[in-house]
Design the sequence.
């Protein structure tokens, strides 16, 4: 019998991080990596994912680029976020005027971000544990919604 793996969308512009995350999670998950915002949007509309791992900046060297946050804002206005968790994986340090921890905390709360991982202090074990928990939360959220819908029909 074939087991269906939970699906993860990885929005990341750097090949070394795509390789690391895909290698780390690949045995247990179906990791689909995209490098551009438009590709991520297309994948999320056309496929089902249980988790999105999103890099905030997709333009190397541009500390003001926040395309990953834009994707999260777009998702917030759809039903996609209802059954999917988000983990942010980013390596850009704060730059005055660009990002502030408080601004990120507010955005992450609004966009239901499960956790944030700094590429500069990346811990594979903690990351994998958080992915497992996020996938479990996605499955439980989807199951809970179906149970509520079934209850309304009774």
Sequence:
């Amino acid at each position: 019998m074939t087991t269906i793996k939970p699906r993860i969308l990885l929005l990341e512009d750097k090949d070394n991080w795509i390789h690391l995350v895909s290698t780390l999670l690949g045995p247990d998950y179906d990791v689909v990596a995209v490098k551009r915002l438009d590709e991520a949007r297309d994948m999320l509309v056309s496929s089902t994912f249980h988790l999105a791992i999103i890099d905030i900046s997709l333009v190397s060297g541009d500390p003001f680029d926040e395309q990953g946050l834009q994707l999260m804002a777009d998702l917030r206005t759809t039903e996609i976020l209802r059954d999917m968790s988000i983990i942010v994986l980013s390596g850009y340090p704060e730059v005055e005027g660009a990002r502030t921890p408080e601004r990120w905390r507010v955005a992450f709360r609004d966009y239901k971000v499960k956790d944030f991982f700094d590429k500069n202090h990346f811990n594979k074990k903690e990351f994998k544990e958080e992915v497992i928990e996020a996938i479990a939360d996605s499955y439980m959220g989807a199951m809970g919604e179906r149970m509520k819908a079934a209850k309304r029909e009774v």
About this structure: Residues 124-153 form the longest helix (30 residues). The chain has a mean pLDDT of 82. Residues 7-153 form a domain with the Rossmann fold fold (CATH 3.40.50.2300). Residues 8 and 31 are 5 Å apart (CA to CA).
